[in-house]
C-alpha cells in the first residue's frame, strides 16, 4: 500500500472542485473482492491452503461445482461434480491436481484439464461456512448491521450466482463476528505497549491513551464495530503549500468532549496558547466548533466552502448555477468583489441568498481573512487524497490501522525531505506555479509611477495602487497570499526586479527545508514492543481438570468411560489413599 502512495494534487487557485459532495459514499460499495479466479498450468503457491483458496476463487468466477477428492501432506486434487446425479450425464472432464516439488518446496499444478462438460447450476460443494465468513469478514467489520444473513445470501446469489442456505449465512456471520471480536481483544490488549514503542523510537512525540480498564483489561467494545469509531486528524501545510500530517487519534464518537480532548493536546504540544496568529479550516461540526471556542478562542477558524456547497446542493439540487456563484463569492479578495458576487446570488435566487447569508460568509470568504496570515485557502479539498489514502488503513485491525497511518506519514515526510533538500530555487515550486499564472496579466498591465515609491497599475478597466516597499496592493491579494499579485508582479517586471525577492519567508526553499529537517523514526515490530501494558488481559484461570471416576484418566469422565478399557485402566487406577480428584 505504501508503494502505491502518491502525492496529493497541487492546490489549484480559482478552479472549481471536480466533486460536488464531501467525499465518496463508502457504504454504497457492496462489491466483495477476491482473487482473479484464474488457474493455469504450472501455477505455483507457497501452501496447499493457498491453492485451495485459488480453486474456490475459480469456482466463484465460473459457477462450477467443484469438489476436493485428495488432500495429502504433499498432494491436493479437485474434480468437477456438476454432472453427478444428472440423467444421461457422465462425469465432467475437469480435473486439477497439484503437488509439492522437492526442489523448491513449492506447490505446483501437475495436472490441469480445463474443460467442462457440465453447465453451472448454482451449486458449489466447496463453498462452506468458513469460506463465506472469510469472504464477508471485512464487510461485516465495517457494517455489521447491514450485512445480515439475508443480505449475505442475496449478495452471493447476485454476484456469483451460487445458492446458499440462510442457516449457512447465519453461521458464517456468527463466525466472522467471533473472528472480529478476537482481533479487537488482541489489539486492545497491546495499546499501551504500542504507545510505549512510539515514545521509545520517537522520543519527542506525544502519545495518550484514555480507556476504561477493568480486571480483565481495556474495554474496547466501542470499536468492535469499526463504524462506531471516529478517526480525528490534524493536518498542517508546509512551505510548498502541501499537507503535513501533525496528529491523529481515535475516539468513540465525534462530540464536544472528544474534540476538546483533541484540541487540548494540540494546544499543549504546539504551544498555541489562545490560538492568536493561527488558522484552522474545518467543516461545521458542532462539537468541533464548540471545542475551538473553548480552547482556542482567538484562532482564525474558517469554514470549508466545499461542505457549505454540499449542504446547499442538498436543498437546491436543481439549481446548477449555485456552484460557480458560491465559489466566486468565496474567492473574493476584497469587500468590493464580495458585494458584487453576493448581489449576483441575490438576483439569481433570493432563497439561495438567504441560505448563504445564514452560513456567515465572513468565516469562509477571502476578503475577511486576517492580513498577514499568508494562507488564502477556503476549503479542505487538498486533504481529500490524504483521507482517500486512509481508506485501506481503516479496514485494518485497530493497532494495525494506527501503524499504517504512522508508516504512511513517515514515508510521506521522508519523500518530501528529499524533494525539499534537492530543490535549488529561491522559492518553492508552489510559488513558481503561482507566479506563472499571474504572468499573463502582469506582462500586459499598464504601470504608471507615482510619488513615494508607489505605482498605479491598470488592467481590464480597473486600476490599483502598489507599494513594493510595504508589500501591499489595494486589491488585497498580495497581503492575503504572501506572493505578489498580478498588479505587483507588473511593477516588478516594469522595474526589472526579481519576483522571488518579494515573496514572504513562509514560501521560501529555506523554510521548506526546515519543515523537513526532522521526521518520524522507524519502529520495531510488535514482538519487540515494551511489555509494560496494564491493559494486557490476564491469562484465563486454569480450569479444574476432570478425571474419570472409574479409571482415573483425565481425558474423560465416568459417563464416557469405555468398558473395554477397564481392564487396562484398572492397573493404573490410584488407590483411595492417594487422594485422587474425581468428578461424577
UniProtKB/TrEMBL annotation:
Span list, region Disordered: 1-27, 553-584
Biased composition (Low complexity): 567-584
InterPro entries per record: MULE_transposase_dom, Znf_PMZ, Znf_SWIM
All copies of domain SWIM-type, residue ranges: 455-496
Pfam families: MULE (PF10551), SWIM (PF04434)
Keywords: Metal-binding, Zinc, Zinc-finger
Molecular function as annotated in GO: zinc ion binding
Start-end of Acidic residues biased regions: 17-27
Stated name of the protein: (thale cress) hypothetical protein
Organism: Arabidopsis thaliana
Biological classification of the source: Eukaryota, Viridiplantae, Streptophyta, Embryophyta, Tracheophyta
Amino acid at each position: 500500500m505504501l508503494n502505491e502512495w502518491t502525492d496529493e494534487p497541487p492546490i489549484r487557485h480559482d478552479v472549481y472542485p471536480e466533486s460536488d459532495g464531501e467525499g465518496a459514499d463508502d457504504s454504497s460499495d457492496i462489491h466483495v473482492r477476491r482473487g482473479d479466479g484464474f488457474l493455469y498450468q504450472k501455477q505455483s503457491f507457497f501452501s496447499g491452503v493457498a491453492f485451495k483458496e485459488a480453486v474456490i476463487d475459480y469456482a466463484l468466477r465460473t459457477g462450477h461445482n467443484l469438489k476436493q477428492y485428495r488432500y495429502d501432506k504433499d498432494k491436493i486434487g479437485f474434480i468437477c461434480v456438476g454432472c453427478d446425479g444428472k440423467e444421461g450425464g457422465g462425469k465432467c472432464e475437469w480435473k486439477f491436481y497439484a503437488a509439492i516439488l522437492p526442489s523448491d518446496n513449492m506447490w505446483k499444478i501437475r495436472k490441469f484439464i480445463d474443460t467442462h462438460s457440465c453447465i453451472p447450476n448454482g451449486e458449489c460443494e466447496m463453498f462452506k461456512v468458513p469460506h463465506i465468513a472469510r469472504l464477508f469478514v471485512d464487510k461485516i467489520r465495517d457494517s455489521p448491521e447491514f450485512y445480515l444473513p439475508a443480505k449475505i445470501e442475496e449478495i452471493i446469489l447476485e454476484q456469483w450466482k451460487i445458492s446458499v442456505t440462510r442457516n449457512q449465512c447465519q453461521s458464517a456471520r456468527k463466525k466472522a463476528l467471533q473472528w472480529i471480536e478476537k482481533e479487537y481483544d488482541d489489539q486492545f490488549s497491546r495499546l499501551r505497549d504500542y504507545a510505549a514503542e512510539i515514545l521509545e523510537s520517537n522520543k519527542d512525540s506525544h502519545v495518550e491513551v484514555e480507556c476504561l480498564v477493568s480486571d480483565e483489561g481495556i474495554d474496547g467494545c466501542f470499536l468492535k464495530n469499526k463504524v462506531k469509531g471516529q478517526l480525528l486528524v490534524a493536518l498542517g501545510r508546509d512551505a510548498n503549500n502541501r499537507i503535513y500530517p501533525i496528529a491523529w487519534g481515535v475516539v468513540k464518537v465525534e462530540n464536544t468532549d472528544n474534540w476538546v480532548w483533541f484540541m487540548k493536546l494540540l494546544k499543549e504540544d504546539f504551544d498555541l496558547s489562545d490560538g492568536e496568529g493561527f488558522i484552522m479550516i474545518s467543516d461545521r461540526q458542532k462539537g468541533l466548533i464548540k471545542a475551538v471556542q473553548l480552547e482556542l478562542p482567538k484562532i482564525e477558524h474558517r469554514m470549508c466552502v466545499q461542505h457549505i456547497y454540499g449542504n446547499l446542493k442538498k436543498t437546491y439540487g436543481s439549481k446548477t448555477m449555485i456552484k460557480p456563484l458560491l465559489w466566486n463569492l468565496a474567492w473574493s479578495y476584497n469587500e468590493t468583489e464580495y458585494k458584487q458576487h453576493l448581489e449576483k446570488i441575490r438576483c439569481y435566487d433570493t432563497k439561495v441568498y438567504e441560505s448563504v447569508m445564514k452560513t456567515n460568509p465572513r468565516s469562509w470568504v477571502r476578503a475577511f481573512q486576517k492580513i498577514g496570515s499568508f494562507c488564502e485557502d477556503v476549503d479542505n479539498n487538498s486533504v481529500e487524497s490524504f483521507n482517500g489514502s486512509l481508506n485501506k488503513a481503516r479496514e485494518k485491525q485497530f493497532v494495525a490501522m494506527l501503524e499504517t497511518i504512522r508508516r504512511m506519514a513517515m514515508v510521506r515526510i521522508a519523500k518530501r525531505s528529499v524533494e525539499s533538500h534537492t530543490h535549488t530555487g529561491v522559492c518553492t515550486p508552489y510559488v513558481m506555479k503561482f507566479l506563472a499564472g499571474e504572468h499573463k496579466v502582469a506582462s500586459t498591465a499598464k504601470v504608471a509611477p507615482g510619488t513615494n515609491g508607489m505605482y498605479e497599475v491598470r488592467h481590464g478597466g480597473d486600476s490599483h495602487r502598489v507599494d513594493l516597499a510595504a508589500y501591499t496592493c489595494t486589491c488585497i491579494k498580495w497581503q492575503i497570499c504572501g506572493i505578489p499579485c498580478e498588479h505587483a508582479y507588473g511593477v516588478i517586471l516594469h522595474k526589472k526586479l526579481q519576483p522571488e525577492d518579494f515573496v514572504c519567508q513562509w514560501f521560501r526553499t529555506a523554510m521548506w527545508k526546515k519543515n523537513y529537517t526532522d521526521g518520524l523514526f522507524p519502529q520495531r515490530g510488535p514482538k519487540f514492543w515494551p511489555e509494560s501494558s496494564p491493559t494486557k488481559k490476564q491469562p484465563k484461570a486454569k480450569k479444574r481438570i476432570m478425571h474419570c471416576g472409574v479409571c482415573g484418566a483425565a481425558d474423560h469422565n465416568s459417563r464416557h468411560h469405555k468398558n473395554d478399557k477397564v481392564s487396562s485402566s484398572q492397573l493404573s487406577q490410584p488407590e483411595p489413599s492417594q487422594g485422587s480428584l474425581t468428578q461424577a
